[in-house]
C-alpha cells in the first residue's frame, strides 16, 4: 500500500502487483458503496423478500415500496418540501450575506478584514450543542420553534463561515486590477460587484451554493431538536423509522433512497468543492 | 491565491464595514450571543419545570455536573468515540488515498463509489446500519456470520459504542480519503524523481517524501474530524438513543437529554460549556493554521 504513488511515472513496472492494487481499489470502492447499493436493492423488493434471514440478491424488482412511501398518508412530500425550502432558502440567504462580506475582504483587504475573516471561520468551530439551549429558549419565546424560517436561519448560521470563506477564495482568483479599472471608469461598488465581479465568479458561486445545499440538506441536529412537524425535514421523517415502522424494511429503504439519492448524486459533482470549503483552504 | 500585492492599496475605499456588517451581525446573533447565554445559564439554577425558582447559583451547576457519574460516562464515551474514529478514518483514509493516487482503469468511478458514504444523511446512515447491516437476525452481517458457521453478534446491544464507531467511520473515512488524496496530488514530482534516482525504495520514498509532505494535511484532517466527531449526534439518535444504559451517551446526547427530558437548563448549559471548551482545544490550532495561510497568501 505504500507503493502506490508512483505508478504513473516511468522507472517502476506495474505488472502483477499493479493489477492486484487496481483490483484492491475496486473491491474497496464497491465495499464502501455496498450499504448504499443494498438500500437501493431493498427498496426494490417486496416487504417479505426484504425482511428475510437469507438475503436475496436476485429478485424481480417492484416499485411497490416507493409507491407506499410516496402515498398520500405517508407525509413524505410534506417533509421533502420542508427540506427543499430550508436547504434552498438557507443557501440563498447565505450567498446574499457572504458575497458582500467576501467582496470587501478580497478586494479591500486590511488588518480588520483579515481579522473578521478569521473570526468568522472560528465561529464554525462552536459546536451546535454549545448554543442549543439558548437558541431553543429564545425560539420558543419568539414562536420560531418548528418554523421553516427559524430552521432556515440556523442552517444559514451553520454554513455562513464556510460560504464566506469559499466566496472569498474564489474572489481572490480575480485580479484586483479589474475592480480598480471599473472604479476608475466611475462604477459604484454595487455596479462593480454585480456587473463585473459576480459574472466572473459565477462558477465559484455555484460551487459554494452546491456545497451549502448539500450540508443543509443532510443537517440533522437542528432539525431533530428544533422541529416537530410543521417545519420538520426529511431528517426528522427518516428518523421516525427508528422505532416501530423500522420493521417495514422495504418502505424504510424506499424513503431512505428518496432522501439520500439527490444529495449523493450532487455530492459526486462536488468532491473538489468539499475539500476547498471544509478545510478552509488549508488543503489545496 | 493569485492576488497581486496591489491588493493592499485600493484606489478608492469601498464601504467595507457596511459590506461585512450583515454577515458579522448574523453570526453575532446566531452564534456569539447564544454562546454567551449558555455561559450565563450555566451559572443559574434554572429548571424549566420550576421556572419560578430561578436564580444565580455560581458554580453549583458545575459542581453537580462533576459529581454526576453519567457526565463522566458521557465524557469518556465522547473521547473514546473521537479517538477510535480518528484512528480508523485516518489510517484507512491514508491507505485508500495512496491506493487511489495511482492511475488505473476506472479510477474516477471507483473513487466516487468509495467516497459516496460521506454524502449520506447521518440519520439514514444510522438506520441502514441499525437494521439492514447490524440486525442480529435479519441483518447482512449476521447472515455472513451464520454462513461462515459462527454465532451472529448482537452488535447494538453487545458492542453499542463499537457499532456507532463503525457507522461514523464508514461515513468519515471518505472525507479523510478525499482530503489526503488532494494532498497527495500536490506532491512535488521532482522530489520523488530525485530520491528515486538516489535508489530509494518505496518505503523510503513514503517515509521521507510523502509522509512529511502530508504532515500538514493530516494535521488538518485530524483537527477537523475531532471537532465533527465531538459533536456526533444523529447516528446515536437514530440507533441506540444513547443506550443501552449510558453506553453510547456522548456529550451532545447528554446535553440533549438534560435539556429536553430533564429540563435542567443550568446543568445542561454547564455541560455545553464543557463541549465548547473541548472543541476549542482543537479549533485553536486549526484557526491558527488557517490564519497563517491567510497571511502567507497576502504576502505573495
Q: Roughly what percent helix of chain A?
A: over 70%
CATH homology superfamily of chain B: MetI-like
**CATH architectural arrangement of chain B:** Orthogonal Bundle
The assembly state of the depicted protein chains is: heterodimer
Computed Rg of chain A: 24 Å
Number of domains of chain B: 1
Shape of chain B: globular
Gyration radius over CA of chain B: 24 Å
Overall number of strands of chain B? 2
Q: Could you list some keywords that capture this structure?
A:
heterodimer; A: 284 residues; mainly alpha; MetI-like fold; 71% helix; globular; disordered N terminus; B: 300 residues; two-stranded antiparallel sheet; 13 helices; 2 strands; 72% helix; 1% strand
What does this structure look like?
The complex is a heterodimer of chains A (284) and B (300). Chain A has 284 residues and is mainly alpha-helical. Chain A is built from 13 helices and no strands. The radius of gyration of chain A is 24 Å and the shape is globular. A two-stranded antiparallel sheet of chain B has the order 1-2. By secondary structure, chain B is mainly α. Chain B starts with 15 loop residues before the first helix and ends with a helix. Mean pLDDT of chain B is 85; it is low at 1-11. Classes of the chains: A mainly alpha (284), B mainly alpha (300). The interface between A and B is large, with 123 and 131 residues.
Amino acid at each position: 500500500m505504500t507503493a502506490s504513488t508512483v505508478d504513473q511515472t516511468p522507472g517502476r513496472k506495474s505488472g502483477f502487483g499493479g493489477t492486484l492494487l487496481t483490483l484492491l481499489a475496486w473491491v474497496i470502492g464497491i465495499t464502501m458503496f455496498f450499504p448504499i447499493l443494498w438500500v437501493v436493492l431493498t427498496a426494490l423488493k417486496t416487504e417479505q423478500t426484504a425482511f428475510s434471514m437469507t438475503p436475496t440478491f436476485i429478485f424481480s424488482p417492484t416499485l411497490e415500496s416507493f409507491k407506499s412511501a410516496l402515498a398520500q398518508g405517508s407525509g413524505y412530500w410534506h417533509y421533502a418540501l420542508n427540506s427543499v425550502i430550508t436547504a434552498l432558502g438557507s443557501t440563498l440567504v447565505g450567498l446574499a450575506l457572504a458575497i458582500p462580506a467576501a467582496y470587501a475582504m478580497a478586494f479591500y483587504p486590511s488588518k480588520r478584514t483579515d481579522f473578521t475573516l478569521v473570526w468568522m471561520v472560528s465561529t464554525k468551530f462552536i459546536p451546535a450543542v454549545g448554543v442549543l439551549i439558548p437558541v431553543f429558549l429564545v425560539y420558543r419565546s419568539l414562536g420560531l420553534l418548528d418554523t421553516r424560517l427559524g430552521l432556515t436561519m440556523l442552517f444559514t448560521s451553520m454554513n455562513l463561515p464556510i460560504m464566506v470563506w469559499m466566496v472569498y477564495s474564489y474572489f481572490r482568483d480575480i485580479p484586483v486590477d479589474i475592480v480598480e479599472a471599473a472604479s476608475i471608469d466611475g462604477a459604484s461598488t454595487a455596479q462593480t460587484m454585480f456587473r463585473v465581479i459576480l459574472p466572473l465568479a459565477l462558477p465559484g458561486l455555484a460551487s459554494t451554493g452546491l456545497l451549502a445545499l448539500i450540508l443543509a440538506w443532510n443537517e440533522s441536529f437542528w432539525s431533530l431538536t428544533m422541529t416537530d412537524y410543521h417545519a420538520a425535514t426529511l431528517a426528522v421523517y427518516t428518523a421516525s423509522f427508528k422505532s416501530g415502522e423500522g420493521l417495514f424494511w422495504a418502505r424504510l429503504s424506499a424513503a431512505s433512497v428518496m432522501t439520500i439519492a439527490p444529495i449523493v448524486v450532487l455530492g459526486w459533482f462536488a468532491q473538489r468543492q468539499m475539500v476547498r470549503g471544509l478545510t478552509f483552504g488549508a488543503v489545496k | 491565491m493569485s492576488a497581486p500585492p496591489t491588493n493592499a492599496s485600493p484606489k478608492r475605499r469601498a464601504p467595507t464595514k457596511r459590506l461585512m456588517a450583515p454577515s458579522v451581525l448574523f453570526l453575532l446573533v446566531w452564534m456569539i450571543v447564544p454562546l454567551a447565554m449558555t455561559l450565563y445559564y450555566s451559572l443559574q439554577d434554572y429548571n424549566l419545570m420550576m421556572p419560578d425558582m430561578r436564580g444565580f447559583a455560581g458554580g453549583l451547576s458545575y459542581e453537580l455536573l462533576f459529581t454526576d457519574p453519567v457526565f463522566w460516562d458521557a465524557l469518556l464515551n465522547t473521547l473514546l468515540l473521537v479517538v477510535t474514529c480518528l484512528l480508523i478514518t485516518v489510517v484507512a483514509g491514508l491507505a485508500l488515498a495512496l491506493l487511489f493516487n495511482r492511475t488505473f482503469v476506472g479510477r474516477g468511478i471507483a473513487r466516487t463509489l468509495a467516497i459516496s458514504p460521506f454524502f449520506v444523511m447521518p440519520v439514514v446512515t444510522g438506520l441502514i446500519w441499525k437494521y439492514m447491516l447490524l440486525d442480529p437476525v435479519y441483518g447482512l452481517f449476521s447472515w455472513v456470520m451464520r454462513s461462515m458457521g459462527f454465532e451472529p453478534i448482537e452488535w447494538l446491544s453487545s458492542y453499542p459504542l463499537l457499532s456507532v464507531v463503525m457507522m461514523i467511520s464508514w461515513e468519515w473515512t471518505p472525507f479523510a480519503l478525499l482530503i489526503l488524496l488532494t494532498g497527495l496530488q500536490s506532491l512535488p514530482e521532482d522530489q520523488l524523481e530525485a530520491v528515486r534516482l538516489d535508489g530509494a525504495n518505496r518505503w523510503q520514498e513514503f517515509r521521507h517524501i510523502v509522509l512529511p509532505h502530508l504532515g500538514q494535511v493530516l494535521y488538518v484532517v485530524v483537527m477537523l474530524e475531532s471537532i465533527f466527531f465531538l459533536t456526533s449526534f444523529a447516528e446515536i439518535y437514530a440507533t441506540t438513543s444513547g443506550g443501552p444504559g449510558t453506553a453510547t451517551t456522548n456529550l451532545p446526547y447528554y446535553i440533549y437529554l438534560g435539556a429536553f427530558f430533564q429540563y435542567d437548563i443550568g446543568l445542561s448549559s454547564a455541560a455545553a460549556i464543557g463541549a465548547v471548551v473541548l472543541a476549542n482545544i482543537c479549533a485553536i490550532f486549526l484557526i491558527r493554521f488557517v490564519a497563517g495561510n491567510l497571511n502567507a497568501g497576502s504576502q505573495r
